[in-house]
Write a structure and sequence with these properties.
The protein is mainly alpha-helical. The chain has one domain. The protein is 50% helix and 4% strand. Strands 1-2 form a two-stranded antiparallel sheet. A hairpin with a 2-residue loop joins strand 1 and strand 2. Helix 1 packs across helix 2, helix 1 crosses helix 4 and helix 2 packs antiparallel against helix 3. The longest helix has 15 residues.
Length: 106
């Protein structure tokens, strides 16, 4: 379960909103990202496939899954580490960005 929670939050990659993405496409995108990025939970660096998914993710597919439990899991891992992983994949994280139940620090 921890893997699913952390994997879901890595989608919070601050991708511009894309209009017209279907619920099915969102679900597929989320599942692919979860599968490709799961190793980061155990301390691994993101793979090339994970980073590609991070860069391509649509925020409207992610934020609905960022509930208080997911936010607590990210805080346990460390928001700074999480942001560094996202930025290491080439995606910026805006200051004071709110996604679901988490706000990234300034």
């Amino acid at each position: 379960m921890l893997g699913k929670l952390v994997g879901t939050l890595i989608l919070v990659t601050m991708v511009p909103m894309a209009h017209g993405i279907t619920p099915s496409e969102c679900k597929d995108e989320k599942n692919t990202l979860l599968n490709n990025c799961r190793p980061i939970i155990f301390g691994s660096n993101p793979s090339a496939a994970c980073c590609q998914n991070v860069r391509d993710a649509h925020i409207e597919c992610v934020c609905p899954y960022v509930n208080p439990k997911v936010a607590a899991t990210i805080r346990t891992i460390g928001i700074s580490r999480f942001v560094k992983l996202i930025e290491g994949c080439g995606r910026s994280v805006p200051h004071n960005y709110k996604c679901g139940s988490i706000t990234f620090p300034p």
